[in-house]
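Q: How would the structure tokens look for this protein?
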Amino acid sequence: MKVSILLPVYNEFLTLPLVLQRVLDARLPEGCEKEVVIVDDGSTDGTSETLYQYKDSSTIRVHHSVVNFGKGAALRIGIAKATGDILLVQDGDLEYDPNDYVKILEPLVKREADVVYGSRFMQGVKGMKLANWTANKILTWASNLMFGAHITDEATAYKAFRREVLDAMELKCMRFEFCPEVTAKVLRLGYRIHEVPVSYNPRGILEGKKIRWHDGVEAMATLIKYRLAPLASFAKKAAPSGAKTAPSHLR
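A: Here is the predicted structure in token form.
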């Protein structure tokens, strides 16, 4: 079983080499092979030049976008280029630990789940700014209320999917609205989100964190948009047999 690790990057010159080494060194569940799909989203700080050393790698695939389109657009490119049976999102900074891959991927490999989120809150998170903590909690509460979910961390970067889940939906995201869009569509299509606890090391704006307060507003608007949108407007095809049928009030 092949696991495609999607790594969207934008101006991560200082942290990318270490992150990429951790990704390459990280264990996967038994019987899995690794593919790393890096999408350089128009970096201007030396990230692009750093990635040229991997152009002949058999494990790493690199795509360079000529301009900065946004994280959501980079992830959509990564999804299109990935060849894995399972796709896992990895940020290009040091906030998340690739040593958590096994616990995230095992429910998918064992076919116990179709979607797995790595929750920062299941075992407690330290060092997150109050504004970020509050925004995360509000978005999670809204997701649970609107879609009948029971999750603890909607905005986590560690999201993993069986390939057919992403193939069943049409994604439109350009920036940070990837998280609320994919959460809304996964739940509307009738999949249950399985969560596992992951470690988290928050960074601030001076350390390169790019998300801002208005992204939280956009995330809430995205949840509302796809709660109200007709299912047929974003479902590419019928959900696979492994998905549970969504309750009628969520379709």
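The two ends are 32 Å apart (CA to CA).

Residues 204-208 have pLDDT under 50 and may be disordered.

Upvote if useful.
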